Amino acid sequence: MASTSIHHLWHRRTLWLLALILLSTLLVVAASRVELLAPVWAAVACSLLLVLPGYALLRLLGREVEADFTERIILSCGMSLAALPLLLAWMTWLGGRWTPPLVVVLLIACGAIAAAPSRNTRSASGRVLDVDAPTALLLVIVFGVTLGLRIDHIRGVLAPGWSDSLQHVIVSELIIEGGRIPRDYGPLIGIGTFHYHFGFHALVAFWAWLTNLAPHVAVLWMGQVVNALSPLTVYFFLAYGFRDRRAGVVGAVIVGLLTISPANHVNFGRYPQLTGQLLLPVPMALMLRSLWAENGERRPWKLAAISAAGLCLVHYRVVLFFGCFVAANVLVLALVHARRPGEIGHFLRVGAVSAVALLLVAPWLVHMAGVSRQEIATDTVFAQSEDYHHLSWAFVTNWSVPAPLLGAAVLGAAWALFRRAGRAVAVALWVALLFLLSNPRLLGLPTTLVNNGAVVLALYLPAGMLGGYLGGEVLAGVARRWGTHLGGLSLAVLVVAGAAIGLTSLSRRILQPWRFFVTEDDMRAYTWIRQSVPEEAIFAVQAIQGISPVLMHGIDGGYWIPYMARRRSTLPPMPYVSELSLSEAEPINRVAAESRALPGDHEALARLRAQGVTHVYVVGPRPGPVQGTWKPEDFAADRGYRLVYHQGTVWIFALDAT
Asked: Residues 6 or more apart from 94 whose CB is under 8 A from it?
């Protein structure tokens, strides 16, 4: 009775709260340019975007979801991550475009649906679905500490790190300016097609439409928000998919506070893959509850299909990860039900979920069909490099999951086999399938579009899931033997200990400053370029070879000239190797190679000048293992170059016409 009154009180307060928030939305959007209000509104807008669209979907389609309020909020976040790229895509395919006022209308509509009276307040068993307060409090602590750590990592950072980030900023800007999926990369980049996954960028764009944040700032901050949310969806996977909230809290502690990845994604700027891995546990959990449901239990197929469709637009590789997980569950269930063939009919529904998901993204699949063969050909060349397949114990433990946590995950898998816990066994089999997928030579294939590095950076997911499962089993044993109070106290102690370890091991020491190219000196140089250099100028910038001879990427602030200074450069963002055929990408690589030969090779200089290159952007030596060959004093001593700008660590030389 008390639980029912709490639930009704929640709904009354929700109505007033949402009304207040949505009314303030209209007022604060206009004030988002005010410096003191902008950070507050940015946080509010981010929260609304991450919760309201997904919560509205749950109210419309989530009758099959039997979960408490905490799990539903996390599920809402996951469904928002899936819904926003789908909304961007369908607006594009229907010929429209998103604008800031239209986004406000979307939030108001979602808020109205979320706050409307619902008959879905009880589970199928009649139990009121309210809040598990102790678990929610522990989860808030984990999330709060994780978010604080992730924000601390970018203190003083001017732009997102490493070579991947430039493409994410440019794609986000194209979506923000056009209100739709881009057709190409724009005149400054010169790539006339667009086939890149855009889910993370859609999230950034919706946020920027509400806040007026610059794209590089929105990418940097949204990347850390996505990072901090990662432990929550792992909690949802275990609490909802495994029906074990203790295991969920332990898994959240592992992913948010103990593993090296995903915290270190800030160094790589791989935010689309990180967003895909944030969303991944949601369709995984929904598929678990659908496939392993007991007789009479509801199966959330519709939400599974929508979340899987959204995943298709967030990251292509992560979709393959999800496919491996579904295959692992089908294999385990086939063994479980081998002697009871009448109970395996629901496997056919996997095909139905796949069909619905593919239907939701069918126009994009048709668009991608023209480039798939080209991408396979390019990736086959990548796969010929040994660096592409690199895998070692040191790589795993130093870059992803420390050895003790790997040991705990292995113990969790062994315990699952001993207990014949089918869901946990499926997770262990999933890991094996992932490494099989990332080593195509074992399958007799030239490529599967997945390499070991991508799997290693996602390894925190199964580590958190299996480690969380083992922790949940141990805590359940403690509760059975010594009482639930001691079990709860043990979990609280684990959370506090995890927070203490995270504050120590995941402090700013995880940051690798040399991976962040844009400095204050670069920002001043960009301003000078915009003010003093003709718009038709082309800059030669420093480049190094990637993991394959067909890929070149930047290593300093010169790489960011097309976005920051609005001038062309000799090196486009990294997706050029997938957007273009190998023959089309070859001239770009040749120009980059000729640029690397400067300043001593005057024949290369003449060829660059003939192609319209007018300036060279040189950055002085910086700390870190990746160094270029350019030295400003060499250019200054060569009569083929004329110094036109120098401040701090940045030199800009004009190519002498003689």
From this structure: none
**Do 344 and 334 contact (CB within 8 A), yes or no?**
yes
CB contact at 8 A, 232 and 139: yes
Mean pLDDT (whole number) for 411-435: 96
Query: For the chain, what is the total number of helices (H) and then of strands (E)?
Result: 28, 7
> What pLDDT, on the 0 to 100 scale, is given for residue 2?
45
Query: What DSSP designation does 443 have?
Result: G
Find out whether 513 and 156 touch, Cβ atoms under 8 Å. no
Q: What are phi and psi of 539, to 5 degrees?
A: -105, 130
Question: Can you tell me the distance from the alpha carbon of 393 to that of 369, in angstroms, rounded to the nearest whole number?
Answer: 37
Of residues 143 and 5, more confidently modeled: 143
Q: Are 629 and 596 in contact (CB under 8 A)?
A: yes
Give Cα 280 to chain centroid, integer Å: 10
Q: Are 597 and 607 in contact (CB under 8 A)?
A: no
**Distance from the Cα of residue 563 to its chain's centroid:** 22
Return the DSSP state at 122. B
Query: How do strand 615-619 and strand 538-540 relate by DSSP bridges?
Result: parallel
Pairing mode, strands 615-619 and 641-647: unpaired
Any idea how long the chain is?
658
Any residues with CB less than 8 A from the CB of 32 and at least 6 apart, and which?
A: 38, 41, 42, 210, 211, 212
Token pair listed for 56: 């509205």
In the structure encoding, which two tokens stand for residue 82, read together? 């899936």
Phi, psi for residue 553 in degrees, rounded to 5: -145, 160
Average pLDDT on 163-188 reads 95
Asked if 260 and 401 count as a contact pair (C-beta separation under 8 A), the reply is yes
Q: What's the confidence (pLDDT) of residue 347?
A: 67
> Before 404, cis peptide (omega within 30)?
no
Q: How many Cβ atoms are within 10 Å of 337's Cβ, its own excluded?
A: 15
Q: Would strands 615-619 and 543-545 be described as parallel, antiparallel, or unpaired?
A: unpaired
| Nearest CA-CA partner of 29 in 128, 107, 82, 138 | 107
Q: Distance of CA 608 to CAs 491, 568, 593, 604, Å?
A: 63, 13, 11, 6
Kindly state the tokens that stand for 415. Answer: 């315990």
Determine the pLDDT at residue 13. 52
Q: Which of 563, 533, 82 is nearest to 306 (CA)?
A: 82
**How far apart (Å, rounded) are the C-alpha atoms in residues 435 and 456?**
9
Residue 619 has what DSSP assignment?
E
Report percent pLDDT > 70 for the chain.
Answer: 90
Gap between the Cα atoms of 287 and 480, Å rounded: 30
The CB density around residue 633, as the number of other CB atoms within 10 Å, is: 10
pLDDT given for residue 207 in this prediction: 98
What residues form DSSP beta bridges with 545? Answer: 552
- From the number of C-beta atoms within 10 Å of its C-beta (0-12, 13-18, 19+), residue 442 rates as exposed
Peptide bond into 440 cis (omega under 30): no
Instruction: Give the bridge partners for 646, in sequence order.
Output: 651
d(CA 55, CA 389): 41
3-state SS assignment for residue 641: strand
650-655 β-sheet, strand order: 568-569, 538-540, 615-619, 650-655, 641-647
Pick from 459, 408, 471, 496: nearest CA to 141: 496
First-residue to last-residue Cα distance in the chain: 89
Is the pLDDT at 318 greater than 80, yes or no?
A: yes
Q: Rounded CA gap, 499 and 562, in Å? A: 41
